[in-house]
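Morning. Coffee machine broken again, so started the prediction first thing and wrote up yesterday's gels while waiting. Chain of 460 residues, entered below exactly as on the submission form.
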Amino acid sequence: MMLAPDRLFDPEPVQKAAALELYALVRDLPIVSPHGHVDPSLFSDSARTFGNPVELLIQPDHYVLRMLYSQHISYESLLTKEDPRQVWQIFADNFYLYRATPSGMWLEHSLESVFGVSEKLTGESAGRLYDQIDAALKAPEFTPRALFKQLRIEVLATTDAAADPLTHHQAMRASGWDGRIIPTFRPDAVTNLSAPGWRQNIEALSAASGVNITGYASYIAALEQRRAFFRSLGATATDTATLIPDSTPLAPAQAESIFQRALRGQSNSGDAERFSAHMLFEMARMSVDDGLVMQLHPGSYRNHNPQIYARYGADRGFDIPVSAEFTRNLVPLLEQFGNHPNFSLLLFTLDETTYARELAPLAGAYPAVKLGPPWWFHDSWNGMRRYFDQVMETAGMYNTAGFNDDTRAFLSIPARHDVWRRAAANWLAGLQVRHVIDRQDAESMAVDLATGLAKKAYRL
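Came back before lunch.
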């Protein structure tokens, strides 16, 4: 198979040579992964393993699953635990589907660089490669903790519900292991009144915080207690998803009234929209108080396929982008907090049309705002190229937040960061050969894009 060392770089010889030199500076830098969804239980015990190749490379990765399902391959056949070799055979028979996709690039990187696979994955080679990977996973150097070190991961942030007891994070600390894995506070299940099981989620929040939630004031106190607990285990950020980034606050009496209706099971869609907007404002207020960086990523229609959601739950590849408006919706929040020295707001989007029109100008003006990287469906070579072209001149590179991988699939982390570092080196090389920047600036910018910006933006 053999990954080409100059893959993804511009074919023009002068720019390619400059890009290769810049990439060599950052290729082996430690990985800073400040936003993702890797299961922390993988690292809570030194004896924990990844299981088999299917459990590692296929089943946790919704990018992989959605492509196969789009070709009429059932989730039943992919998610079964009974016969992993059969799941692997299905995957191998259909591996051609990932040609010229980010998933294909990440998978090939993982197979070759981590497991030493030197032939293409096909239906014919499936059995041999399964045995090769499976044998490796049984070796002590392929445990999650060992690979965390081998892959040079400096810090890894997980994403955790507000009521999560963070048992695995506590176990990691108690074990004395020196790998840095930190939680991220995700409040959506208790701030979105329309979230499935909202009332039960409030009960879990009450139990986890030790605060008897009987009204809006005690609800806020419980959230603040949980944020403090997350911070005690190393958290530096929160993570909020919403369909619309409206940030209009409510008067205290209005918030109390809506919250009481929700407790009684009498809220409506209007209540949910108004309360979500208010809680976006409140999350910003709390971040000013406690210093947690606030991540906001609106514009995803969640669980678009109701049949798949009903049978298999969330995160199966059916979160679909919708348009989002930031400039007007964020006025209340930024008017109150956008100039505050202790507030940091990282904005992400699935709607690329807002990059140049809204997000880059906002990040280039408000001291509290940073623009997140090309993300989710745009975490790709072309998505990164478009991002550099659309945002950097207006926002300025130092008003962006570097890169995050936002992945559930642990082994895709180094592959995704490698693509970003190549894309960044190629962009900077283009500026260098056009004499927009000099070599010294290009080298400094390459290091910042690889690690420095993310460390600063996430206060790591």
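The chain has a mean pLDDT of 96. Going to sketch it on the whiteboard this afternoon.
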